[in-house]
Predict the structure.
Amino acid sequence: MRLKLSTHLGMVRACVAVAQSSDYKPVWSGNSPSDFGAFVARLIGDYDAVTAKATLVERAAGGAADAKAAAEAAVVEAAFIVARALRLHFKRSGDLERRALVDLSRSDIGRVRSQHLLVRANAIREIGAAVVGQPGAEGLGITSELIDSLGSAIANFAAVLGAPRSQIVNRATLLREVEDDVAALIGTLEDLDDLVVQFARTPEGRRFVSAWRRARMIVDLGGGGAAQPEETSANPTTTARQTAAQQVAFQTAPPPTTGVR
């Protein structure tokens, strides 16, 4: 999933954790503005739905590729086994022409991809099928069972080849839905931003508002979009040292507590 979406989801998760914590929930639960609680409940429900959909996006991204790689490896291995047996058979029979067709290493067979691999594997299978039953073939393991195992691997790979495209389309659709849903989550957070400031009338409320604002800053820290420190010296060496010191201080100090983002 895209980094920006992951960062936004992390921010929502942090805000929910703050609102639901035992330290801060008493500040807003049952207190004015009462709609704050309704917004929090909606945020939690929508967040759970979005994260479930995001999980489907990740599965759609990896599952098809893994299945294709496994099926491709199986075809290469099955074709290589048949090809080596045929190579020896044709060496014994003196059939140099067909021996040259199957004189392939495992890397030779696996060097081609997708449809080209199917063509090469099918060619080896057809040569093998024609040899089954010839004198000496069975002793080398060239049997109908061996050829059928190659045929099964080819059929499985051919079926899997059609899957990635449908998976990609499905993933793209899901990803667009996640993007829209995350945008709606951010909209809900912005509504909460407008209400949370009303709790700053008590010391406990001010601590809650401060924690909420820190959670809202996660999007800046995680997304790589935080403003760079301004130069305070015309001397490049001094500026570099100051920038490094600011970065260390930024990493170790608590997040800023002013300005709801």
